[in-house]
Each structure stands twice: as structure tokens, then as C-alpha cells.
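Input chain follows. Return C-alpha cells only.
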Amino acid sequence: MRRLSAIRRNRGYTGIAQGIYAQAQNSFQYCYNNYPIYDAHRAGENKGHLLHDFYEWLNSEVFLDFTREITGFDDISFLDAQATRYKPGHFLTTHDDVAAGKNRRAAYIFGFTMDWPADWGGYLQLLDKDDNIRFGIRPAFNFLSILAVPQKHTVGIVAPFAGGMRFSITGWLRYGDPE
């Protein structure tokens, strides 16, 4: 057992990571870095940051009209956002983005990942009713995906040998007033 613990430490499997991986075996779990653009912008933090400028563009009438047109949801009134970074070993288990009181119509993913070989994993995977992958989207640059809520999906684990990181801005197209 001592040898196994030493191997895990050398591979970066800390006690926290072990707990995250253990929970992922049987329930919803994720492991990735994020910057909560929506929350930070609303709190007035990091004013003038490029990510906040992007958030303001997402909530411009031009982009909101675009999302209403392509989704068919005329009541979309705002988008929230987070910047995400998936490193080797990071993942997001199966979920459908339903959250009581959040008024989510659709999820979106703007990809900002350059030169990503398929072997590195990290695919956005859309699942059918039997949890089979019906469609996978490789991390890419300047790519927009929009999924109706609910839609079961996952982000597959980024391979431990991946030579880069998966970057995106994600969030939800929502109706009603921001909280």
C-alpha cells in the first residue's frame, strides 16, 4: 500500500483528487479550473478584464438576438458565463444542466483550444437515452456549440499525457431576470 500511495503522489493524485475521483464513480462530479465571469462581473470584481468584455458582448442585443433566432426561444434575456480550463486528468461527468430556479433554455460552449489531437480526450460527448455517445465534439478554436436543456452530456477525461489544456467559455442561455 505504501508503494501505491507514493505512485499516486508522484502522479498528482492528492487526497482531494482521490476524493473527487471516488465521487465521480457513482454521482455527478467535475474536476477543472474555472473563473466565474458572471459572478465576478456582477460583483464588480476585475473591472476591465477581457473576459468581462466578452461577457458583455454575450449579453449584447446582437448576440442575444442571434441565440433567440437559432434556438427558437424568444424569451432568452441573458447569458451567464464561466471560463474553464481542463488540464490532464480533468473531466465533467454526465449531467443535463437542469437546475431549479435557474431558467436555463440552453447551454453553450465557446471553444478556445488550439491544435488538439483526438488522443488527448476532453471531448464534449452528447449521450442518448441509453448513455451511448451519439455525438462527440473535439476541443477546437473559435467553435460554438449550443445544447438544449435538458440534454445529457459529459466532457471526457483529458488524457494524462495531453500536451496542452482545453480552454472554453461556457454557460447558459437563460430567461427571466438575473438573480
